[in-house]
What we know:
The chain has helices spanning 2-43, 64-84, 88-107, 115-119, 133-148, 155-166, 171-174. By secondary structure, the protein is mainly α. It is globular and about 60 Å long. Mean pLDDT is 89; it is low at 171-180.
Amino acid sequence: MNILNTWIATRSALEHSGSYLAALGLRILLAWEFFEAGLMKYRGNNWFSQIQDNFPFPFDVIPTEISWALATYVELIGGIAILLGLATRFFSFSLIILTIVATAAVHWPGDWNTLSELLQGYAVSDNGFGNYKLPALYLTMLLPLLFFGPGKLSVDHLIAQLFTRSGVNNAADDHQLQPA
């Protein structure tokens, strides 16, 4: 019975710590990667015109200057926001869309005939088969932030706590339909 109690206490401690640390680890890594990509775009030249035909609709009809600016600032602002845990679900969704477009336009293999050839693109460097490994990892890491939020070490959590204390969350209870 002592082993069971130890396991339950350990599980409880891990879950409590995880509510603070798990999402924070994802946020730090994703913030670094997206901010760095945005900074390279900010300092670099617009090369989107070379790949615009690869963008999925409707991004293929948007002027490349607008697409470049959107990608740059979503990565820069989104990276900072994800790091802080501010508007995390909004920026996670935005970065998911950006990553899907980037995967389609740049990282997905241009031509593949078999599943074996497609799987060769699950790589960091492009050896003629695409290089969608990092975008796939980023998408996978963004999903918990989208669905579960940024965790307790975040501005979003702090804001939620402030609204809960001020009674804003209970305002919906005051407006329930009453029988006529």
